[in-house]
Amino acid sequence: MIITDNHMHLYNNLRFEALKQFKKEGGTHVFLVSLLTTCYDFPVRSGKDFGQIFDFHIDMVGKANEIVKAFSILSVHPAEITILGGKVGFQKAAEIMKKALDVAGKYVAEGKAVALKSGRPHYSVPEEVWDLSNRVLRHAFEVAKDVNCPVQLHTESFTLDGMKEIIKIAEKVGINTEKVIKHFAPPEVSKFEEIGMFPSIIASGKNVVTAAEQGSRFMVETDYIDDKKRPGSVLGPKTVPKKIKELLNAGFKEELVYKICKENPEKIYDIEIIE
Questions:
Q1: Topology of domain 4-269, per CATH?
Q2: Roughly how many angstroms between the first and final C-alpha of the chain, as a whole number?
């Protein structure tokens, strides 16, 4: 059976041992997402400097493939507007982020990654920073449209109005909104379908069962951060396989698992997922 975690990080805690735990519990496929610039030893002064981070991440994903089937997602995290902005100013930070997205797009075009990660801050920021973040997000959609890939979104907490606002940005760019993925999504499958965004449900509590009760238009994730300072956060690497088994124990069919762990990622990322 194929069991896919749609959003996981490897950092400075368990690293590849996390994938071994995932596999031992039944996990087979994972989308590994690069981290904030502060998590790497590479100095970042320009968009091109993100290339060092992306190279490091892609190399790590290659090694991860010796354990499970892993796919690379390249992140220009929306919090970079604050991290870089504190050093060079918000306007320049936004320009660096846009250039970094251009670099990430080239890696996708070369087949080294399958998606971008962008978004807007999940914390309160001044209006100027919010506006700049929306411009960076728009650029992410433009790059993704050019290279025909999805964008995983790190955003503020879910509200229907907030997600509709993001979808409007995507529609103006002309990207297929099915390729706009809300990372860390609540189990609001019906509402996401209504607005056209694709949810990646955070597999905590009863979220996966609640989502399945509304249909099969979703993926699942742990957002495992692999940080020594927060071990097990957000959810441990064994979580998705355990929650998939909970689905089956609750009476849902393997066809549903096949849909959310194989068919949906294949359609969204334009990849092949095989056992």
A1: TIM Barrel (3.20.20)
A2: 7
State residue 6 phi and psi, 5-degree precision: -85, -5
- Tell me the two tokens of residue 127: 């209006």
Domain ranges of the chain: 4-269
Lookup result for tokens 């907030």? 162
Query: Tokens 């999504």 correspond to what residue?
Result: 185
What secondary structure does DSSP assign to 222-272, as a single string?
A: --B--BTTBTT-SS-TTHHHHHHHHHHHTT--HHHHHIIIIIHHHHHHT--
Q: The tokens of 114 are what? A: 């399958």
The string of pLDDT tens digits covering residues 53-104 is 999 999 999 999 999 999 999 999 999 999 999 999 999 999 999 999 999 9
Helix axes 90-109, 80-88, angle to 10 degrees: 130
